[in-house]
Records
---
Amino acid sequence: MTSLAAFVVLVGLVALERLAELVVSKRNAAWSLAHGGVESGRGHYPVMVVLHTGFLVAMLVEAVVRRPVVPGWLAWSMLALVLGAQGLRWWCIATLGRRWNTRVIVVPGLPPVRTGPYRRLAHPNYVAVVVEGVALPLVHGCWITAAVFTVANAALLTVRIRIENDALAALPRAGAPARA
């Protein structure tokens, strides 16, 4: 079984990790914009911020209100998935370098990244988000948060991935001349 206190600490650590991501994102977005980057899909960004913030709050509220009893095998297996998702997320951040941020900003003239996890997956960061969206709440049996976030996030990712794919389609392909 997992304790409520341990779960609160875990969610707090994830929240701190998100703040670190925002620092990296802000710095990288400024770099991209300074290098001629063009932002797409600004309208969905506030929805994404509210959804992801609400996700962290909702699982804590659910844990306190429901006080679920969580088998150790579930807690530990979900924690392993959470840690794996964090590893994948930071691999994405490291691979994209200055081009990674939480917005959709494309710098004209830079080809799409096809290394690291992007060698095999078009959107590996979203794989990490999906896995974490299920696994983090389930570390403490917060299945309502996991279900609601998963459905809402699927709707958001449908929009986000379309915007991102459209923005990336404007980039030159490897070996192709840049568009004027």
Note: Residues 4-169 form a domain with the Four Helix Bundle (Hemerythrin (Met), subunit A) fold (CATH 1.20.120.1630).
---
Amino acid sequence: MESSEPLVELKLNDSPELAAGEAFAEWESLLSESYVPLAVDPERDEVFHGRIVRGSLPGFELSTVGASGQRIRRTKSGIARTDGEFLFVSILTEGFGRLHQDGRIAVLRPGDMVFYDTTRPYHWDIDGSWSQVVARVPLSVLGEHVPTGRGALPTATTVHAESPAGVVAGFFRDLARIQQSAPEQAVVLADNGVKLLASAVTLAGGTLPIGQSAQALSREQVLSFMRARCTDPALTVDEIARACLVSRRSLYRLFDEAGDGLSTVLRRMRVECAQVLLLRDTTRATASIALASGFASERHFFRAFRVETGMTPGEYRLVTGHALQAGEPRLHTA
């Protein structure tokens, strides 16, 4: 299994030490080095801020980026100075933006996703402060799953959060968060990342995914439903299958072929929920946390928690709580 590279965090703010416009010029350089050569213009005169956190995962790069309002342009001269051809996938997490490419305009609000191709000009108009999760995948890698020729990709097409392909946007938004807090887990979760992107591209283009891309999307749709309902102790396999429009047999096959059985995944989700509650309220009784996390009994909770973490809930609360208080580093920066 491939490993991720250490995360790189880049920050830039206006300061008295920088002459007017210097911070923004430096920001343009940082964006170009992090993604592809770009030309950037400020939305208006205002105090500038910008931040990028980026890293590499199997098959693609994933980053979070946010800044003041600006116009970002991919020009013909920038294209000529680029090594490699990429598809970018942006999920807006804050603010409002418009992406222009191939004669189309995608209007994005938080939760929406859009695709754009670095081999052709495009530009972003982003009003006010904003943030995005951005995936960069080589067209050669994506082309193993979907056609990537000129005009084949659904560029500058808004993929709304509530659409079927919006499940993929939620996956990458969560993956970026996990990448910063638990990079080893992010590598495992990212294994199907390119296939999920391929399925979203296919759906946005108006057709249904097939093969491995379809299977990856189906599994993520099931996982999305399970995350939303995992704290319900009465959740059953039949209910999951019915809600996700798959048979029990297909449901089990989706997870068995990926290496983790359905019950293992559900148990892991509930333990992760319990971990959050244990640290959020250090005086809350474990019996209450067990029930709130979807476990049928405290005994079942203790057994599952030990299987997943190697510790009892009390030991986890003590050890992890002390580590957080000590301020152990969780992000590599450069």
Note: The chain has two domains: 8-193, 270-325.
